[in-house]
Amino acid sequence: DYQLPLAGRTVTISAGGTREPLDPVRFLGNRSSGKQGVALALAARDAGATVRLLAAHMEVPPPAGVEVVRVETALQLREAALAAAADSDVVIMSAAVADFRPAEVSDTKIKKRDDSADPVITLVRNPDILHELVERRNAGDAGPASQLIVGFAAETGDSDGDVLAYAEAKLRRKGCDLLVVNHVGTDKVFGQDTNAVVILARSGSEPQEAAGSKADVSAAIINRISYELNHVLP
Ligand code: C5P
Asked: Which GO biological process categories is it annotated with (predicted)?
């Protein structure tokens, strides 16, 4: 019998960019389009998985045939990700999560007044959701013990060697099983339809390169995830 590689698996994917409100009309955001996360959701769906898409702000519609949970802020994404992880075989954090949020959110629109000094925005750190998912998985508090957790990293550097070194340090720091690394700066990634990545594995196997459309890159990432689940983890 032919079985799709992710048949019977539940895959949670975060996509897009969080928006951190300042007041009812303003926010701090980022340039993530959500295209890579949506392409991953499609590839996982087509590989037979039950897919849950945790959608922050995206410029593209979510694909058909996946469950969509809308979120706005990093804290909302954290709640949704921790809940979804409870029954997910795979969690892929492809969302661009704001590292900081305004310390205070005004209930009313912040006004400009001629008599007042220039406003100052104080920021506080957001939790690192990826790191928290790994810690909970490792502590046996969330999801299957064999849960595979995948992070993304957009790194700048003068050379591919620099970028790989930074990314390897990040892989160890975050503790995720796979880290998908973009070298940004030379290739622009945000909002584009193509991408070039290196997939690093905690297991220490050779870095794997994938390039092409975001669909091609997603297919390579999903293949690698299937391989890890079906051959490396058990
Ligand atoms: O540390 P850095 O932001 O480069 O890590 C990127 C990875 O960590 C991505 O997978 C992103 O979704 C995730 N992340 C997170 N929570 C944050 C910041 C990033 O889960 N607060």
From this structure: coenzyme A biosynthetic process; pantothenate catabolic process
Q: What is the pLDDT of residue 68?
A: 98
pLDDT for res 227: 94
Instruction: List 17's β-bridge partners, or say none.
Output: 57, 96
**Which residues are known binding-site members for CTP?**
99, 109, 127-130, 152, 170, 174
- Beta carbons of 99 and 127 less than 8 angstroms apart: no
pTM of the prediction? 0.94
Distance between Cα 231 and ligand 1 center (Å): 27
DSSP string, 130-159: HHHHHHHHHHT-SS-TT-EEEEEEEE--SS
- In the residue annotation, 195 being an active-site residue is answered as no
Q: Which atom of ligand 1 is nearest to the CA of 95?
A: 12
Can you list the alpha helix ranges (DSSP code H) found in the chain?
A: 35-46, 74-85, 129-139, 160-174, 214-227
**Does 75 score more than 70 pLDDT?**
yes
pLDDT band at 233 (very low <50, low <70, confident <90, very high): low
Mean pLDDT in residue range 182-209: 80
Which atom of ligand 1 has the smallest separation from the CA of 99? 21
Which one, of 187, 233, 229, lies nearest residue 5 by Cα?
A: 229
Residues flanking ligand 1, CB < 6 Å: 74, 93, 95, 97, 99, 126, 128-130, 151-153
Q: Which residue has the tokens 């804290």?
A: 75
